[in-house]
Amino acid sequence: MNDDANLGGLAWHLAVLSLTAIGGGVVLVAPDVHHYVSVQNHWLTDEQFAAMYALAQAAPGPNLLFVTLIGWMIKGWLGAVVVTLAAIVPSSCLVLALGTVINRHGGGEGRWAGALRDALAPLAAGMLAGAAWTFLSVAGAGWRGIVLALAAAAAAYSSKLNPLWLIALGALAGAVGLV
Amino acid sequence: MQDARVGCWALFKVFSHMAIMGFGGVLPFAYRHLVERTQWLSAAEFGQLLSIAQLLPGPTICNLSVMVGQRYAGVAGGFSALAGLLLGPFFIVIALGVAYQGLVHHPLFVNAMRGMAAAASGLILATALKLAVGMLRGTAKPDAQGAAGGAGLDLARTLRWRRLAQIVLLVAAFIGLGVAKVGLITVVATLVPIGFLLFAFVWRKA
Q1: Which ipTM was obtained for this model?
Q2: FRET label pair with A47: which of A8, A107, A110, B100, CA 20 to 30 Å apart?
Q3: How many angstroms separate the CA atoms of B196 and B188, rounded?
Q4: How much is the pTM?
């Protein structure tokens, strides 16, 4: 808990960011949120920030709940609620506004949507890799952490194993001192 | 296609269920519940809504829940589905936060969290890899009909350029967001228009 933290500023920041996160899901806001929360304002340490994402991955439900945890760490229950709403309400309202059109006419097939999809595929892949790099560099696990992350990526890429097992194996590797 | 049988409460319940089941990602469970169990959507409709949900800003699964909810019960339905998706996991995640606060002074726990964080970033990397490989496969081989025709050589050249452009965009996005840290808004505002213009006008699909 941080009594001086400016919740309104964080909420506004997240609302704008979540409207910008296209193509790759909410993980894309992570580098900016880390900069705002840990580098600029020192509300959370690097390790806490990385831990919040890992915890949200270990829980069921949408990954966006990592921002809920960040809000909770900073301002308790109020922080959790405000930050969650800031991350989902603007984009949901946009979807509702467009939804009438989508449900009536369909969408996503034409030339413009095709070009947008062609552009977003490489950008999402690159931005996701950038977000992964951010987490890895703040987790404080050094080169062994990079090896573990690459191993987890290879396992997740080449098998249909539930990601939860990989998270658990990562925790085990950390607990026994491998990372 | 409004369906009178599906109300706000039913939407809330079905989305709550899939969210609580959704360890390691809700999307596979969304498919199982929406297409196989309730049959609210056909597989084709699910695919179409999902691709729109990915194109729109915001969390993909939340966008999908709002679209499905709205289709069956209007704006209230959209919010019911979204609330179902988030309410249960919200409390679970906070319970994990409480546990974290309680254990954070144990060295063993701190070490375990460090390993978890590294594995979690590996999972993000795997998603990036899947997207990149899918994208390169899509542009790697010219489709048979086009190549057989007289325009085959031109088409192959266009595809090569498209692939090169996609790789450049991928690397630029990685460096911008991850290494140079110029911020998401700058990355999206610069690279999305560039990519869109390239693929809409210069190297568009035949």
Answers
A1: 0.89
A2: A8
A3: 11
A4: 0.87
Residue ranges making up the domain that contains B166 = 141-202
> CB neighbours of B183 closer than 8 A, spacing ≥ 6?
A31, A32, A35, B177
Task: Kindly state whether residue B127 falls inside one of the protein's structural domains.
Answer: no
Half-sphere exposure of A9 (CA within 13 A, CB side): 10
Q: Is residue B168 part of a domain?
A: yes
Residues B14 and B77 in one domain: yes
Cα B162–chain centre separation: 23
Chain B closest-CA separation from residue A100 CA (Å): 8
Q: What percent of chain A has pLDDT over 90?
A: 66
Q: Which residue of A has its CA nearest to B135?
A: A121
Element (H, E) at B20: helix B8-21
Inspect the interface and report whether the beta carbons of B192 and A62 lie closer than 8 Å. Answer: no
Nearest chain B residue (CA) to A166:
B119
**Residues B127/A98, Cβ–Cβ less than 8 Å:** no
| Chain A contact present for B59, CB below 8 A | yes
Out of B103, B132, B150, a domain closes at: B103
Q: Does A132 have pLDDT greater than 80?
A: yes
